[in-house]
Design brief:
This protein is mainly alpha-helical. It is built from ten helices and two strands. A two-stranded parallel ribbon has the order 1-2.
Length: 310
């Protein structure tokens, strides 16, 4: 949960990102100028609480999504869920997910808050509304790169690998070398950076709408928790639909990395279309939405509440 993702360390496991693909800060562009950016202590506490709740609550849905994306075309969700249940694997990868999400969320939100504050003060006023999206995209690039090794291991575990973290790491090094820890890095970046940019831009526009047309600090009122939750949910849905083909591509790359002789380099969007048609690019979308929407909404709501009350 979107959102680990998944130090100057959204998910992020999000992605919350955040979710990261999991995520969550204030959308008032002038507030940092009047009251200062939130303290590092508040960012750490808010990010840790938000990402922990999101990861532990939504790990079973993440497992189902990964199994759907690696299954043969035509396999139903019901059969996938039954298979996971027989293996008692709904919580597989949750420990790695927490290891990924906690530093990832602290890193992501720290970079996000700092970049958004700097961009809001340096960009021309006509373009200041773009600063949340731009800050979110840039922050995600750093987090994807830093958290890629844990993301590869977690994907392998949620995909059914029964090996321990250390055993999976040895398998990856033996089969792919150190570069194996960055398998799927390009497709992950192609998914997460646009996701974060779209998410924060939409969040900044939608939160006042969900707040009944009131602009939060601009209107002399704070945003309600319901407005924050609904804005996080709707923004993450838009961003997830736009970027899902790259999530499928990322999963295929990372599932093959621990397998000797797997042709990782042959996996591409065009090969996925040839294998399963255009709809193949959206395999597992329902499960991703079921993970990303509540994960992002929980993360941003808890983050904002803790930040305001701690």
């Amino acid at each position: 949960m979107l959102l680990l993702s998944q130090s100057y360390s959204r998910g992020i496991m999000q992605s919350a990102s955040d979710c990261l693909e999991c995520v969550g800060p204030t959308c008032d562009l002038t507030a940092p100028l009047r009251s200062g950016a939130p303290s590092l202590y508040k960012q750490i506490v808010a990010s840790t609480v938000g990402s922990s709740v999101a990861v532990l609550t939504l790990n079973p849905i993440t497992v189902i999504k990964v199994h759907l994306q690696k299954a043969a075309p035509g396999v139903s969700i019901v059969s996938v869920v039954r298979g996971i249940g027989r293996d008692r694997g709904f919580w597989r990868g949750s420990s790695v997910g927490l290891m990924q999400a906690l530093p990832n969320s602290v890193l992501y939100m720290s970079i996000y808050e700092d970049l958004k504050r700097r961009l809001a003060t340096t960009m021309p006023p006509a373009y200041s509304s773009l600063s949340p999206g731009l800050a979110g995209g840039l922050a995600r690039i750093v987090c994807v790169t830093a958290m890629s090794p844990l993301e590869v291991i977690r994907t392998a575990q949620t995909g059914g690998a029964s090996s321990s973290l250390a055993e999976l790491a040895r398998d990856i090094i033996r089969n792919r070398g150190l570069s194996g820890f960055y398998s799927g890095w390009g497709s992950t970046l192609a998914r997460d950076a646009p996701f974060s940019a779209i998410y924060w831009f939409a969040f900044d526009l939608l939160r006042p709408v969900w707040n009944g047309g009131e602009g939060g600090v601009h209107g002399g009122e704070s945003f309600s928790n319901i407005a924050t939750f609904c804005a996080g949910a709707s923004s993450s849905m838009i961003a997830a639909v736009c970027t899902h083909p790259f999530d499928v591509l990322k999963t295929q790359h990372q599932l093959s990395v621990a397998k000797a002789g797997a042709a990782v380099g042959n996996v591409s969007l065009s090969s996925l279309v040839r294998a399963g048609g255009v709809l193949g690019l959206y395999r597992g979308l329902s499960m991703r939405l079921a993970t990303v929407i509540p994960g992002s909404a929980l993360m941003v709501t808890i983050y904002e509440w803790v930040k305001a009350n701690v």
